[in-house]
Amino acid sequence: MGRKGGAGLENKIRELRARHRLTQADLAKRVDVSRQTIIAIENGNYNPSIVLAFRIADILQEPVNEVFWLNGNQDSNSNGEGT
């Protein structure tokens, strides 16, 4: 899930985008950022602001903590994937 080492955010944007049939460009347009920003977030190369994280979660119709979680803190996340 785009972990580059150290503390940071993990996410499942790619999976949720696919579920909603959204491209990176679609999501970027809906949250008013560039496609490159979505790519960087999905790959774990950029941590979004809290406002952007909430916008993304809203578009993907999930609570923010189901879309993003801190590395190693997925126990509080109920998506069932291992870290």
Task: Give a brief outline of the structure.
This protein has 83 residues and is mainly α. It has helices spanning 13-19, 24-31, 35-42, 50-59, 64-67; strands at residues 9-11, 68-70. The chain has five helices and two strands, in the order E-H-H-H-H-H-E.
Describe the protein.
The protein has 83 residues and is mainly alpha-helical. The protein has a domain of 57 residues: 434 Repressor (Amino-terminal Domain) (Orthogonal Bundle). The protein is built from 5 helices and 2 strands; from the N terminus they run E-H-H-H-H-H-E. Helix 2 crosses helix 3. The protein starts with 8 loop residues before the first strand and ends in a 13-residue tail after the last strand.
Q: What is the CATH topology of the domain at 11-67?
A: 434 Repressor (Amino-terminal Domain)
Question: What proportion of the residues form beta strands (DSSP E)?
Answer: 5-15%
- SSE order: EHHHHHE
Kindly report the average pLDDT value. Answer: 86
Biggest sheet record: 2 strands, antiparallel
Helix content: 40-55%
Residue runs with pLDDT of under 50 for 5 or more positions = 1-6, 79-83
The CATH superfamily of the domain at 11-67 is known as: lambda repressor-like DNA-binding domains
The CATH class name of the domain at 11-67 reads Mainly Alpha
